């Protein structure tokens, strides 16, 4: 099984001693970030490639949704975004920290929301961070790297499907969070398939280490996912209950639906955790049972041959005056006696159901 790719909290050590709000990238720098400005309302939609953050022209007429889609973490780009929209340095610091815990921050004029997006490819859990900023006339999304996560949202905007073109910025934020959280169901389905493969592996494999390695991998992945589900639930709960005019009442009911999705994801992860622990315990029990059977067989064989070895040892001594030593059929008598002892012991073990 392939090794999962997950961030380790080691880069954060570099920030020890720095003042709060210091813009230091924690993660991999993307030297070629992609910035798009997606604008739409009921009557039109437009996608513009942005070469420089200064070129972003927000349409502020109360009807147009402005979605600034940034792919690739780049400290210079994030700093320029912060200057253009007058964002707080603490929020920019969180955006540049790819190890940030999912959360919601209310800065009154804008709302910051961050969560983890996970993919399960070739039995490998791949994680990236996605940050969102909701303003009065814009939504900003910042992804660590290019994925097709938001392609369905863009398709709905272009083809005018669903409610997205008839709603404002807050509904776009909900739609982006919703599709990111729904991706967990894809991951859960992949883990479910991986668990079934491990179950088959424990029943058929001859290498005792291979199933244990696979079980440990899945268990680590489940623990990692569970680590971020609870804070994601807390972040959505806080977003839903913010006293802000940036989110209208109509969008609140959609945000409440997100909690149902997260609860279902959390329950599935708990079930899978119990399943993988049960598979491991059953597998270890089977291994121990097989080992005990082997030890029992070897013990029975040894116990049968111990008296035979004793008899052979006696008649193998080189004393000149030994009883039966001069008997013409002594050898056959000794062999027959040994066979008789072995048969008696075997029958006894059979009656005791030890064999």
Write a compact overview of the structure shown:
The protein has 355 residues and is an alpha+beta fold. Helices cover 52% and strands 14% of the residues.
List descriptors:
355 residues; alpha+beta; Beta Polymerase, domain 2; Methane Monooxygenase Hydroxylase, Chain G, domain 1; 7-stranded mixed β-sheet; 7 strands; 14% strand; rod-shaped; disordered N terminus
Name of the CATH architecture of the largest domain: 2-Layer Sandwich
**Any idea of the CATH class of the largest domain?**
Alpha Beta
Strand content: 5-15%
Q: How helix-rich are the residues, as a percent range?
A: 40-55%
| Rough outline | rod-shaped
**Overall SS class:** alpha+beta
Task: Return the CATH topology of the largest domain.
Answer: Beta Polymerase, domain 2
Largest sheet: 7 strands, mixed
Order of helices and strands: EEEHHEEEEHHHHH
What separation lies between the terminal Cα atoms? Answer: 39 Å
Number of domain units? 2
Query: Any idea what the radius of gyration is?
Result: 34 Å
